[in-house]
Amino acid sequence: MSDRISRRIAAVPPSGIRKFFDIAATMPDVISLSIGEPDFVTPVVIREAGIASLRRGETRYTSNSGIRELRQAVVAKWAQLYGVSYDPENECLITVGGSEALYLALTAILNPDDEVIVPEPCFVSYEAEVIFAGGIPVPLATRVETDFQITAAQIEAAITPATKALLLNYPNNPTGAVLDRPRMEEIAAVVSRHNLLVISDEIYDRLVYGDGRHITFSSLPGMRDRTIIIGGFSKDYAMTGWRLGFALGPADILAAMRKVHQYTIMSAPTTAQVAAIAALTDPAAEEAVQAMVASYDRRRKLLLEGLNSIGLAAFEPRGAFYAFPDIRISGMTSDQFAWKLLEEEHVAVVPGPAFGLGGEGYVRMCYATAQDQIEEALERMRRFVRRHG
Ligand code: PLP
After folding, report:
1. Is 137 contained in some domain?
2. Which of 235, 239, 364 has most ligand 1 atoms within 8 Å of its beta carbon, as the pocket-test mutant?
3. Do both 88 and 174 map to the same domain?
4. Could you report the per-residue pLDDT of 227-279, keeping only the tens digit for each?
5. Is there a smaller number of Cβ atoms within 10 Å at the N or the C end of the chain?
6. Which amino acid residue places its CA nearest to atom 7 of ligand 1?
7. How many domains would you assign to the chain?
8. Pocket test for ligand 1, best of 15, 122, 173 (most atoms within 8 A of CB)
9. What DSSP string describes 157-180?
10. Are residues 236 and 191 in the same domain?
11. 222, 254, 282 — which closes off a domain?
């Protein structure tokens, strides 16, 4: 029996987030700050485009790469927003979420036992996906002292002859960190010097607050030919359930990704692709994005101020929709804090170590949650910290 499952798959533990999610779902009166998804329904103009497509009977496969008009819209938007151009014919692939794009990128570039540098805390899937693709993740802890940005020196020190790629994610899940240009330039220099590839997961690109502006990693000198951009619709357009994302990158790597996609997936969902064209091209969708960003920003400030006033010192998240407060004042580990908070106050948060190295002492809270729920959660946490602090 024991050899029925691949050792590689069996070695990967299930996601730590799911456990909280499942238990919280069974409790009454729970406020969940644990799930990483927008609380908005997909903007109506996007939904209508999907419905209209179904009404027209567009229920077949699309081209493997994705509907040409969608690819054109993706590259046009990327060029307009971030100044980097891609060829919609061979440098853009439409995928089943950013998740598939990430998996394809790793599968396309890794040989057995190639190492991938993974700054952490990070999205729960990264280490697992590197292992599934036959590689070896090399986690590096980012710290609050460097604003949860990975540094060139850390990367340089971790590079071995087996290092193939660096997996970046800014704006970051779970810390909300963004990478500033000077740091990016230093990282780009290391990447060039050691001939690495970069997978840059920019799925939260539109969710940047204050005077910050997203910089795509491929816009740095010399990086376009070394970078695979992972993008998507789940977060920016509140489309998690539609399962749509994309990859942008050099033609040779995109061709290899397309090959895996062709044999395993065929094409991303047709309805979702048609809806996504509206997401990228209809001015009403753009207005909706801006309204959602403004709303997240209000809730970001509310949660941040509340946490700091309770004594849970929170790093200021500049992107995505997560806060990552330091909970060490409670004298508990992250796991103890999260479980006790759930049991005693019915507030669900995710322990930092679920996101890898550097997560102990922190918990993740998602503020894509109704404002009154955030206020109530803060009240409950205030009581909790008073009792245990
Ligand atoms: N990348 C990051 C950093 C994420 O946080 C997520 C979802 O939580 C994904 C990728 C996957 O998104 P999707 O597959 O829905 O596009």
Report:
1. yes
2. 235
3. yes
4. 999 999 999 999 999 999 999 999 999 999 999 999 999 999 999 999 999 99
5. N
6. 36
7. 2
8. 173
9. HH--TTEEEEEEESSPTTT-----
10. yes
11. 282
